[in-house]
Structures
1.
Amino acid sequence: MTEASLRPHQQQIMSYRSGKMGISAVPGSGKTFTLSHLAAQLILSGHLRPDQEVLIVTFANSAVDNFSHRISQHLKDAGFLPGMGYTVRTLHGLAHDILRERPELAGLSNDFRIIDEREATQVKSRIVANFLSASDQLLTLYGRPEDSDAQKALIRDKYLPTLLSSLANSFIRTCKDLQLTPEQLKLKFSASPLQLPLVDIGIQLYTDYQRALHYNNGVDFDDLIRLALQCLQFDPQLVSTLRGRWPYILEDEAQDSSRLQQQILSLLSGEDGNWVRVGDPNQAIYETFTTADPRLLREFIQRADVTSHDLPASGRSTQSIISLANFLIDWVQNDHLSPFARHALTLPHIQPSGPTDPQPNPPDNPQWIELLPQKFSSDEETVFVAKRAAAWLEAHPDHTVVVLALTNSHGFKLIEALKKQKLPVIDSLLSSSNATRVSAGAISHILRSLSDPLSIIKLAKSFEVWRRAAASDDEKALTSRGIALIKRFKQVEDFLWPIPHNAWLDHLAPDPLQAELLLALDQFRAVMQRWQLALSLPIDQLILTIAQHLFLEPGELAMAHKLARTLQDLALSHPEWELQELTEELQVIARNERRFIGLSDDDSGFDPQKYVGQVVVSTIHRAKGLEWDKVFLTSVNNYDFPSGTDYDSYYAERWYIRNNLNLEAEILAQLNVLLSHDPFAAYTEGQASELARQEFIRERLRLLYVAITRAKQSLTLTWNTGRPGTSTEALPFVALRNFWQSHSGSGQ
């Protein structure tokens, strides 16, 4: 890329040489493009020693590959060796690297393992179930007095497990963000004269959760951040070493930064160090799920020692869509019903790119903007959107289309309706799995057997892995019989390479040789023989050879290609490594550690352009950072997007909890009182619930802004009356429609 192809605001950022810089970037402004160009420029400047790198920290694993590819291309275009002079990490990846430097500083052994969200959720579910079976404390204190015994029994069985899990998540996450252990909390709680019953419950759950992690020699994702910061705080020499390694830190998606993330990067950059932070506070939509706080970026940009810049130009959307997004900013700041919501969205406005821009805005077509006033039930809206999507694709088969929902459950309803219209539907942005870990684990088991040709136990494990798709009871029983029979062989070659060829059958007696079992064992022998003959191949080709016989699903095969590429890079970096060392690296991935360097299937770089002519269904959160020609946004009502009116209701205020209390907010308020150094601090029930309403309103306004700015050419917004049938249009939706009618002359 040449300097001439940069936009004027991007060229200003390229003048950066040192110090601290904060950049506010609107949707579609090319912040990843700009930041990768800046990283390449710093590498090419000649100021880095051979042992130094530019550190790029980003939010999502998919961005790791994106940044790496872009920077490598810049370096290659300049005639430099790609892949050198930089490291790209998610925050969790960076924390993992820091912990691996000095695990003993965090009280961890060298073989600690990482507990992923799925495992952590399972642990919390068991703890919650145990708590509820032993105590009625929560329902006794916060249930509605008017509920009958039958209603209370229903609530206890059906609703309380979910609520208590949410309380545990909020409490544990916040305590770890504050670097508080269960033991420290117990001491403070026992010394406090205040009645803080939710904190009491939270401490019990936190204690049991950490005990379970310790028993499994594990840490969760929140621990990674907390303990990495602890290592840096305890060891100034480690800080000095890492500062020398990474003299420049570039932070992407800084609006999603947490207090701990900011502390880590502040320590690594130093008071007079080089730290560039890029983000869009208007796209901060993860506060409900994390401890992220967009105020941290806004405050950083306003600091006296920080040079601030805007990236306001965007070539993503038509002028009509830009006008809608900019109006939403202005309406929120000037006319929102709640004064507390008026700083939810901030300047700058989105500016269209210039006529000579390398990414010009799509041609404008105001008729492609629909803000529909029709009153739908939830089911009626789903059918309407499905039919409208079918009509759109029939007229525009070369376009990309997404239907955005607030929740996975709503998304699945939309999928059913779309399929009834005979539309090709993509749902990979609705749910995620642990495919990376499973794929890596399966291949690593095969490699362990191949690298240890004397182990019958590992051979039997390979048979189990090869048969892992067996689902029915009969198929599972066949697998078990096959494992038992393989273990009867004294030597691996007696099964794989017997002399004469059919002599392996002798070892199976006296078991009755059912034809199906014999066939399965014979097929497995043939596959293992092929894999053994492939041992002379490079590691990437060996993995792909195994994958051809091990995986059937396209997603698994795609993951195998990514694993093969990763292992090939490791083999080139460590030419002394043999198959055993490379197999150990796959086991590291299977233990979830490589999730933090870009090998995660839950956000593996979704590309809408691969699904032209198909309908993608996504939550708004998962759609962030992506763009489609046509966007349908559903359920823009006052339940999903409340504004603080008397008739609004809120997700976190459960109907079965008295006085509309938001217990997730109340438990954190009680925690703040417990930790307060003010001797006159007191907890007033209900205040935190009211403040949480205002924060939820602000986040939902940003979510609406993100949804609108996913659209490149066409946008349709609809609303429904919700499950009880009492919801109304969201106030920002009404404001947007009134603006659009006057702006475009539309009669909608």
2.
Amino acid sequence: RKYSPTSNENVREINGITHSLDENNNYVTTVLEEKNIYRENYNKNYDIMKFALPNVKVGSIIEYNYIIESPFIFNFRKWEFQSSNPKIKSEFWAKIPANYNYNIALKGAYKLNFQDGKLLKDCFTVTYGGVADCSLLKYRMENISAFVEEEYMTTSENYKSSLNFELIEIKHFNGTVKKYSKTWDDIYKELKTDAEFGLQIKRNSELFKPKITSIIQKESNQKEIAKQIFEMVRDWYQWNNYMGIYSDLGFKKAHESRTGNVGDINLALMGALQFANISTEPVLISTRNNGLPTKIFPVLSDFNYVVAKVNLNDESILLDATDKDLPFGILPYHTLNSEGRAIGKDSCYWVDLIPKQKNKRLEYITLKLDSTGSFVGSVTTKYFDYDAYDQRKKIKKFTSKEEYIEDLDEKLNKIKILEFKISNIDSLDLPLIEELTVKISGFDDLDASKLIINPFVFSQIGVNPFKLAERTYPVDYGTTIEKTKVFQLEYPENYKLEYVPPAIGLSLPNKGGRYVYQLTPVNTNSVSFTESFQINKPVFYGNEYPHLKELYNKIIQTNKTEIILTKTN
């Protein structure tokens, strides 16, 4: 980890040994060579040290050790008992000078099998003569299962069993005490006057002055003014993919280059909104892959993202101007992580990050089984909110709509797209609409006495994302979900409906979600099928996991059901 040329962590004395048996069953040790140790640049704040242990094969035992020198004493390096591999035993020893006071917290599902602490006299000495005792702390866990990652989760760092250290204070040898654990009042005062945070908001208020003045002259509705200012800032800047709660380039350079990190862009947005006299507060966020922020006491380094909270009468709206595909009032998926901390006008407070918008989709399918044995018709899909955002991203990865459709056509098994229309690709406040005219391979001919048809021709759930016998960490969708499909099939008049699968209605406990499927005849040669899937809350906990897993199992079973038509003449 590196912050500046004089403030870096360093790794040294990397040693490794591989213990193996050769082809004659003789014990062999192979030592790690320096040529197999190398440094890789990860980003501007981090390098990665990598090493490749030699002669590793099935049954080998590996040993390695290294020393990390770090100036970042606030976050004493944590120890992860649990990893992606099962462990018979994991033990951690820490020797900490008595004048360093840390808050030590155990995280995760496992408990310690052993812990002990004892005093070591005069173990810590500094160059100018100070001597201190040390605490020797020992912690051990046994029979630790592997941490297996599944879909719909935030970072595994939130849930692996680990020991974490936060510095509270240092008692210096001259008698002074420096406290590192702060109150939210301390954080509030610090951020308000920080040159790269609070003062950036004030400085940014002048940047868009002519454009904001023009908007205010044309509009009287505060929500519409906020929306137009948001769109102006969003369309002005290009996010450089760096996160952070602070401005990196500074208001002037970021504005002139039309680029910046999260802090540069969203602090500029707040300055512009405040210039228009719209109540706006910064909200500090820890993104989904960064971990949950500590709530027992404030740890500013927990947060790596900042968004704007607009307060309009009795309505609060969270805004992020870093993504040109984000509509007004929707935060990107990577920010949906429990709660954020708002730096309000007079105080700090927690803000719920559960979005009002859903991951919502409506699908309308109309097909006719023609005389050639093929299904022809149309598929219209309407994407809303987060589903629309995701779909716009998919489409815009291609150079044109035509290229996207060509790729989709190649992926759809037995389905040929004849015509297409995509609406509202850049109208972010409207649902994205895809209209396809399709031809689907069906039967070689229609002379068969019996035809078997699976109505789940599109959007079929084929694999259960939940496979663990037990999941100790939450299922976190980020949003609620609503998927609805309406499918109407017309078949030749010389066939009749012999079998229709029975209707199914499944619900999760406590109204957590539901699945409904119903197929009914419409007239003598037409059948209608409706499927609805809802997840009504974004987070499910360990005791709810079996119900969620079983719901998906039932859906997969249902997706295999078929309609049977028999020939009448």
3.
Amino acid sequence: MMFLSVAECHLALANKNALPHYVGRTTCIECHAEQNARWAGSHHDLAMQEVTEKTVLGDFDNASFNYFGTLSRFFQREGLFLVQTDGPDGKLHNYPIKYTFGVYPLQQYLIEFSNGRLQALSIAWDTRPKTEGGQRWFHLYPQENITHDDELHWTGRNQNWNAICAECHSTDLKKHYDSKTQRFSTTFSEIDVSCEACHGPGADHLKWAKREPGWQTQKNKGLSLLLNERQNVQWLIDPKTAKPRRSQPRQSSKEIEMCARCHARRTLISEEYEHGKPLMDTHLPRLLEDNLYYADGQIQDEVYVYGSFLQSKMYQAGVTCSDCHEPHSVQLRLPNQQVCFQCHAATQYQTPKHHFHPSESTGANCIACHMPTMNYMVVDPRHDHSFRMPRPDLSQELGTPNVCNDCHNAQSPAWAADKLKAWYGKQPRGFQNFAKALSAARIGSADAETRLQRLANDDNAPAIVRATALSELASHLSVNTFPVVEKGLQATDPLIRFGALQALEAIPLDYRIPLFSPLLTDPVRSVRIEAARLLAPVPSKHLSQAQRQAFKKAAQEYVAAQRANAERPEAQLNLGLFYTSQGKTQKAKAAYQHAIKLAPDFMPAYVNLADFYRLIGNDAKGKQVLR
């Protein structure tokens, strides 16, 4: 054990106090009572709560729920709310509810295990009114019999609060996972999504507000993230075209990226989130991948909002989240489609000449047609934020869904396409015109290479679309496409640079150094660590001294990114592959074995461990692993 001198203790304390730290909502409301009043009772406020008679909305009056023959019972005893349900061994046990999770249209319940894990029960309470089918227990996987040995079982790794849910339901969340003991010691400064979850640590802002010594030196009022993108901005409507225009260009996407930290399908690569820094420094957003999005970019799996919004004409025009949503209540600024008429002239769009439906009908509603919903978690309809025109013609050709036939489900897509053509004199195309290229890539069409090349090279296409096209070119690299991918490595948008790196996964080692080494010092961590992963098989003797230093640092960041997810077998597999490519055999073997220890059902770890034994000349051991 090491002891510090008194002077060293004072210095350490001074350094700690010099860092921005969280002060809590009760401190904020001294000056921001109005914002607090709007926040109170919001979904952010009620994201996670202590269990009380008031916060628990489900029926715990000895209610029961039958799921494929397993009868679960919800009851109270000695002031505790309990559920009797199947545990990790498949047998019935009594579990006390530790926290409520969410509030509408469903509420889940968290149960604590001895290793610091909190697990989200898959039987949830439908909080909607009874007239809407609510006020009942239901299972999140109603059509599947999820048993105790399934990875989706409520006691399994995919229903773990600490790793899967916690970051977005609490403030200043620290996972604190110990890989050696496989224990969590997770902490948060506030149980819900409070002021500092969005604005960042408030200590310096408090110093600025109270004019404490040194307040004059505080930039941005002492906040690490000043959310002022809408300040002095107006949306002007062109009297001739009726189209809206932002009075000044959006200078950054800091507000959108702050929201996207949670409102995105993404992978965590660092727990050291800093407000105001690029999202891709700590999180890697998913591209428009098959099974997550339809080929035209519409939502398919649960992808939340960010990936859809990046595709939209709204995003390109400078719209931010808070143009439509009041950020403290998280409600729309105006009810229903009235929020659209903040910018879009009602005289132009709220008329049958535009929507061709009876007034006050569903078809006359902007949101119903341009932001269709899809249900997730059985009862939770989420709006697609790509703000697209309905394209029944693409439904005909590619099988993608369209909102016209969602309502007119007795009719065919051809019928809907003919209607649109008759109304508008042509088939409306809208802003997003990449479906045929992504569909060609997914089904392996002969023209996929040409279509993807054209899309990746289109400077007018959304960055997430171009990044996706580049990543899909991995299977279509040729003399024609290589210059397009090489150009992508130098793009301004980090998502495009990342997509270009993915396209070059299989290129020979000799080509990698000049292409990837400049990206080892990229300003964004996601790009740096991907460049390091792709350069890992290159012998260090082929790198210059400067390149070796850059690789060493980026490689450390890559390893740290996997260790940030050390509780996941996928992260251990990534480490094993990374170490294997560098010839670090013992570390690779340990990582594969750790993945299997975490998840005995995780097949890729067995396959790669067997291949590892093949590489070191021990086929007998590899066969044993496979058997």
4.
Amino acid sequence: MIALVRQLRPVAGLFVSGSRAMLLIGVVLSAVTAVCGVALLGLSGWFITATGIAGLSAATALAFDVFVPSAGIRFLALARTAARYGERLTTHEATLAVLADLRERLFRGWARRGAARELLKRPARLLFRLTLDIDALDSLYLRVFVPLFGACAVAVVTGVVLGLMQPLVGLCAAGFLILAGLGLPVVAAMAARRHARRRAHGLEVLRSRVIDLVSGQSEWIMAGQLAARREGLTAADGYLAACDDVLNRIEVRTGAGFMVAGALLLAAALVAMAWLAEQGIIDAPLAALGLLVALAAIEPFAALRRGAIEFGRTLVAVQRIAPRLSPAVQTAAADVPPAGVAARLDGVTVRHPGAERPALGAVSLTIAEGERIAIVGPSGAGKSTLLGLLAGEVAPQEGRVSRRAATLLTQRTELFQDSLRDNLRLADPQADDARLMEVLEAAGLREDVEALPQGLDTRLGEGGHGLSGGQARRLAFARLLLRPTTLWLLDEPTEGLDGATARDVLTRLWARAAGRTVVVATHIRREAEAADRLIIMEGGIVTAIVTRGDAGFDAALAALRPD
């Protein structure tokens, strides 16, 4: 139980700290709805029975007051309807608000240093966490907390009503409701937990395989693996169907258990009411009221069975997203280098998890402000790791890093299914259209954008579909210009572009880099030609640093890949 509370604490705390008033109102309205439903059935039974008895003689018929109980029935019916509407409105509104906040915090948690590199290994993971896992958490409040509070309120009211007739009867009824009404969902949750976890994993596998099949269909056909991929998809679907079958069976059995519990409670109430009426303690209308209250009392507890079945899935979701929940992005504060220095590394060592050797080994380096540096070396030499270290994306295990605020331009051009304007404003949300057109001009993309019918309002497809590779790279360069940082970190900025486009992009980049420090990781000669120094790396170690004018500078430059 302690471990369960510890697992639920991060998410439960978010619910409590969110729309607390709205959540509380929703719980109260749920209890009012349940109590009004039980009271409505009980009062209706009393009224029908009392009316029938009063009609046996003219004297009692004339003396019987039909207005007060009928008004009470109308009030309870209207109150139940209004409370149900208010409960659905408030609980769903509050839940959606909390889940939206949860998605934001989870996204920020994945934005921590190093987390993006984890996502590259399984790019669909963030999507699943933001959709499947977050959606699973709505049952924690809507299908567990809300019906639980309402059912307990009904148990208390039932115990009080029957206790006013005979205390022992009320105590036994309330105790049976608590034991059976909560015991059955607990047993169901324990029985379904393993299968719910399997279903959650199975659903993630199914979605992953569907994405792989659709996105890589051409490649699977060329490799002759399409049939095998289809079989894998069918197997995942069958696994998921088997889990659903088991969970449905558990839910049906739990429902049958509530039916048995309701029948037992009704039978016991019938015996108790008959005995109390025979003893003259209560009259027939009160006996009918007590009987119908007992009949309706088990129904609110039955609403817990769905939440119990999904509780295992909810726990899986909590366990998977809780480590990434954070009220804000926590980034390690980098030391500020002395005046005139853009970045400094002192004996820095970086080890990636599971790697046999360090990605960077005892690297010491000083980069002056305004300097242009090219980091060169074969693939796997540690160039990108060094850039990530300077950007604050990679944490060193040993040594010390001091740097200015930096902007990292990676090899990939990350564009989203949105307008050109909003893709640019990712770098500066406050930039107006004049500023956007200015950086587009600097990137050589203004004429292309102005030629579009919708200009900056032109919507891009997924991944920037609608732009050529050169246009997408220019757009990324324009976004770089919007960032007010003095340290630019560029990872093979023109990789994949034709020679003419690449040289035009580089010419514009160096023209706008005046007064800034630029560090380029590359193995292409054209990207290193404007460098003041070449840092040569191999195996995570800086093997040489040559300055323009040194004897080895031209030789190192000539060793790089030509256009």
